[in-house]
Amino acid sequence: MVTISRRAALASGAAMAFVGFPRRSIAAISNSARATACPLPLSAVRLRPSDYQRAVEVNRTYLLRLQPDRLLHNFRKYAGLEPKGEIYGGWESDTISGHTLGHYLSALVLTWQQTGDAEMRRRADYIVGELAACQAKRGTGYVGALGRKRKDGTIVDGEEIFPEVMKGDIRSGGFDLNGSWSPLYTVHKLFAGLLDVHAAWGNAQALKVVEGLAGYFERVFAALTPEQVQTVLGCEYGGLNESYAELYGRTHDPRWLKMANTLYDNRVLDPLARGEDKLANFHANTQVPKLIGLARIHEVSGGAPDKAKAARFFWEAVTRHHSYVIGGNADREYFSEPDSIAQHITEQTCEHCNTYNMLKLTRHLWSWQPDGALFDYYERAHLNHVMSAQDPATGGFTYMTPLMSGAPRDYSTTADDAFWCCVGSGMESHAKHGESIFADSDDGTFYVNLYIPADAQWARRRAAVTLDTRYPFEGTSTLTFTKVRGGRFPVALRVPGWATSKAVVTVNDAPVQPATARGYAVVTRDWKAGDRVAITLPLDLRLESTPGDDSTVAVLRGPMVLAADLGAADAKWDKADPALVGADLVGGFAARDAAAGRYATRGVVRPGDLDFVPFYRQYRRQSAVYFKRFSYSAWAAEEAAYTAEQARLKDIAARSVDVMHLGEMQPERDHKLTSELSYPTTYRGRQGRDARSGGFIEFDMKTRPGPLLLQATYWGSERGRDFDILVDNVKVATQRLDNDRPGKFFDVDYPLPEALTRGKASVRVRIVPHDRSSAGPIFGVRLYTAKAAGTSGSVA
Predict the structure, then answer these.
(1) How confident is the model at residue 732 (pLDDT cuts 50, 70, 90)?
(2) What's the farthest any 2 CA atoms get from each other in the chain?
(3) How many helices (H) and strands (E) does the chain have?
(4) Within 10 Å of residue 568's Cβ, how many Cβ atoms?
(5) Listed residue (762, 757, 582, 737) closest to 658, CA to CA
(6) Is 2.60.40.420 the CATH classification of the domain at 655-785?
(7) Neighbours of 455 (CB within 10 A)
(8) What is the pLDDT of residue 17?
(9) What are the tens digits of pLDDT across the range 328-341?
(10) Domain chopping of the chain, boundaries
């Protein structure tokens, strides 16, 4: 057994079977921008049979199903050319049209590299040719499919917003710029796809199209003052700064580096450069690509330490304080306060795009200074989030990966009518599962970062290697040099933080004592063809608490998150969330089928025992991932509190006159609901509705004689918003929501003057947001009788 002493901070936690993730800072980054290590080219790696290889093949089938001419519809239409295919539905029929084509180009390139499928390259070259023709027809350098919604609701060519912007007419609400949905985000996806085609096989036409597009937007931003630039950058712009930095890296034209630095959002990035976590209430995926851009500027500019520092600090803040156990982040697409994950376990957690981008950022940081802690995070998110986001039966993708107990995953369908952002990032993610398994560095070290079965060619040593493993279902992974140019060099095998001192390394079946460095077991020797080096990692069960709340835990086996199986996805889950109760919780688990990662429980789950299985494989099942942990005495108190709450709800139900279930079709019809700028929503399993600035919600409620209370239900962690509540056009309350009761739903009772309801069979309730604010969401409204004087009430 090898004594590997890294991450001493983890050792004490492991002894208690509670290990936080991650708990060790990555190594300091030097001011040098030169990459010291790099993963092997994707084209040099071929996956062997595994869930990862299956995912690539399912995704390849999906890419072949898509029709390039349909994705090109708006590009041709808006350029004045006849479309060759019918436009797709979903987001592709909205003003964000065109973002999918950029992702599709990248996915074609990656699949060609991962599998060698020539059809992928043929399609990518065809699309580039079509884009070049569209660009030439326009004659401005611009090429695009994004739309612009005019005031009459018609959607037209989105290019018309940019002359307005250049004149200083800039109107944005964060995702809308002058009537177009995140247009620069869409432009970035096209940039990235074209740059990927150029990099993969030197398609000069792709670079020419990019340079024309880059020049167009250079002129747009040149017309703006610094203040106006910041206003434009308040609308999501993806990683456009990264694309300009990459273009500079290809051409060495200083115009493009200047543009990359121009696309700098002061409000978000300055605090990160100062080492301040002010991410709460920022849209998560809007921010991650900006940091990837800073990382790339650092690399191509010869060193930008402030940008490197911001990228590193952001990564640490997100992975240590804002990430769920599966490696994803954000609730309802937004960051919450640091270490508040336990208050945000909902059906809208973990947007896939966020993790797609966090893995990209991780690769950049690792190339500057190889550190196993970076790939501990990468492995966690790649296995548990990315692999759960594809349905292997259909090739569909999730938008969110819900972690609330009983919440099923929703996948895009074979009708190809969604084209969410996460469909785009999904088709890329599942094209490249081999990209980070192996790497080498300037000092000649060969790294194994991920234990995924694969064959690879290592050019530096003219070597061929095979990695055999059933990890994470079995602990041993064996690297064999089937061919190698003789010589002495180090092989570094990542030792995850949770493995602490229990990893075992052998060479040709004989135990060895490796050196240890930054999370790797390093074996240096004269290697020859046929040599084998193996690492065996412990796959013991353990509990991991959420950042900031030791009472909320998840169950893991090695890097793999286990979930309680709650049944088929199409069976509504309406039971209490399961909890873990007892002094030795891990001791209550027994392997049912260890080779498949399946466990049974005995006496530690309330209300009853459940089977635990790998979370990522719960494609069409309902899961419980997080559990409140109780001692026996604490559980008795919890049951008593639950009983009291049920009695309160029963009392209110008995006194109810009318109940309005907002966000549900039939109740809204029954109550004659009308609204403007109002949208239904679902959160934590509860239906609701909100109203945006300039809009309203209005509906009828039945009454009865006597004192009445109007009750509304809210979620306690809402960002600041103000709105009025009127009954028959009389204002009865002004409500402000501003993180009132974090982590819970709560009720507010509004007493109604008897004169307002006297002699009426019903009243009309109207909810109106204040200017530049919103109302709600409101998760139900109830009208009920007040208790008689002298009895305890329930007014919140």
Answers:
(1) very high
(2) 97
(3) 21, 37
(4) 10
(5) 762
(6) no
(7) 17
(8) 35
(9) 999 989 899 999 99
(10) 655-785
Among 556, 585, 623, 736, residue whose Cα is nearest residue 345: 623
* Per-residue tokens: 26: 């990555």
Q: Is 575 left (phi over 0), alpha (psi -120 to 50) or beta?
A: beta
Task: Report the distance separating Cα 347 and Cα 715, nearest Å.
Answer: 14
How much is the pLDDT for 608? 93
Determine contact, residues 365/377, Cβ cutoff 8 Å: no
Contact 438, 458 (CB under 8 A): yes
DSSP strand pairing (627-630 vs 579-581):
parallel
Judge residue 167's burial from the number of C-beta atoms within 10 Å of its C-beta, 0-12 exposed, 13-18 middle, 19 or more buried.
exposed
What is the per-residue DSSP string for 485-506?
Answer: --EEEEEEEE--GGGTT--EEE
Phi and psi dihedrals of 187, rounded to 5? -60, -40
**Residues 267-279 as b or e (16 or more Cβ within 10 Å = b):** ebbebbbeeebeb
Q: Respond yes or no on whether the N-terminal peptide bond of residue 607 is cis (omega within 30° of 0).
A: yes
Degrees to nearest 5, angle at CA 179 with 178 and 184: 70
Termini Cα distance of the chain: 60
Pseudo-torsion of CA 481, 482, 483, 486, nearest 10°?
Answer: 40
Q: Which residue has the tokens 């019809």?
A: 669
Q: What are phi and psi of 556, to 5 degrees?
A: -130, 155
Determine the Cα–Cα distance for residues 244 and 262; give it in Å rounded to an integer. 10
- Could you tell me the two tokens for 425? 């990032």
| 743-764 pLDDT tens trace | 788 999 999 999 999 999 999 9
Tokens 């309802």 -> residue? 332
Give whole-number Cα distances, 113 to 57, 246, 370, in Å: 13, 20, 24
Give the strand order in the sheet containing 520-527: 37-39, 438-441, 446-448, 487-494, 520-527, 515-517
Could you give the CA distance from residue 460 to residue 458 in angstroms, rounded to a whole number? 6
pLDDT at 486: 80
pLDDT digits (tens, 9 = 90+) for 296-344: 999 999 888 999 999 999 999 999 999 999 999 999 898 999 999 998 8
- Is the pLDDT assigned to residue 717 strictly greater than 90? no
| DSSP character at residue 570 | T
Per-residue DSSP letters for 733-773? Answer: EEEEESS-STTSEEEEEEEEPHHHHTT-SEEEEEEEEPTT-
pLDDT digits (tens, 9 = 90+) for 226-270: 999 999 999 999 999 999 999 999 999 999 999 999 999 999 999
pLDDT for the residue 646:
66
Percent of all residues in the chain with a pLDDT value above 70, rounded to a whole number:
94
The candidate with the shortest Cα–Cα distance to 684, out of 405, 322, 412, 389, is 405
pLDDT value of residue 791: 40
- Residue 397 makes CB contacts below 8 A (sequence gap 6+) with 352, 389, 390, 391, 411, 412, 420, 422, 423, 426, 427
Average pLDDT, the chain: 92
List of residues 6+ apart from 510 with CB closer than 8 A: none
260: nearest Cα among 283, 289, 235, 286: 289
Region 72-77: mean pLDDT is: 98
Distance from C-alpha of 331 to C-alpha of 347, rounded to nearest angstrom: 8
Q: How far apart are CA 532 and CA 534, in angstroms?
A: 6
Query: Is residue 604 very low, low, confident or very high in pLDDT (cuts 50, 70, 90)?
Result: very high
